[in-house]
Amino acid sequence: MPESIDALQQSLATVGYFADRRLATAVYLALKLQRPLLLEGEPGVGKTELAKALSAVLSRDLLRLQCYDGLEQREALYEWNYAAQLLHMRAFEGRVEADEVEREVYQARYLIRRPLLQALQTPSPGAVLLIDEVDRADEPFEAFLLEYLGEYQVSIPEIGTVSAMVTPVTILTSNRTRELNDAVKRRCLYHWLDYPDRERELAIVRSRVPQASAALSEQVATFVHRLRSQPFANAFQRAPGVAESVEWAKALVALDTITVDPEVVADTAGILFKQREDVAALTKELATELLAPEPEPT
């Protein structure tokens, strides 16, 4: 556990994650208070990457539960190894009482542990559990999560209550495709994660793409920052995320780009944008405008 917010920021930076003060404060409090942290924000702002960085900084195993529509409890918590149970029952059929066989087959060794149960049963120093894109799951699944989020325990009918051996660091992410239940939010600390400012994005690009020249990294960070800013942002359905900035920088290096010009922007638009309309909107004319020096403040 980092001793301070500053120490946490520095530790995250050593693994290539550059958190601003507000985000570092939210993470520090989640660790200190042993509360889940709900991160909401646009796709590509670094929500998932934060869990990966925390796993490295805290030397904890990263467990990931990827949510989707129709996700069932057994895929998140556990299911029984039915084949092994059946073999056990056949082996003892007729030799012991039926209720004794039933007690035997519902032992922990027949459990197939999924991310939630794995997180609760991970020994010291514990796990980092990422519940990714929880907004994609349905409302009954949110209700199922409440016991875990509020008490770090789950109930298994055949065994009973399983409580955490070591409190897991729990990160929930949401792209806000729908509003989450208030009961989920009340059990978590909350942080809205926005796109990074230019300086923080520049630091990320330099860290992730060290082979890019200082001038090229500057151009990438400045260009993407202007793309997300008004009036240019109105031309696109979705702004590029940090992951796209990094991939674009890697692509420019692969193309031996020294200076970004409108032609290379148009040629590589499919790295910055994933929607046909947005790629088409990034014309050479608009790229020229975006690459033009910003006017000096008067």
From TrEMBL:
GO terms for molecular function: ATP binding; ATP hydrolysis activity. It comes from Caenimonas koreensis DSM 17982. This is AAA domain-containing protein. SUPFAM superfamilies: P-loop containing nucleoside triphosphate hydrolases (SSF52540). Residues 33-194 form the AAA+ ATPase domain. InterPro entries: AAA+_ATPase, ATPase_dyneun-rel_AAA, CbbQ/NirQ/NorQ/GpvN, P-loop_NTPase. It holds the Pfam family AAA_5. It comes from the Bacteria.
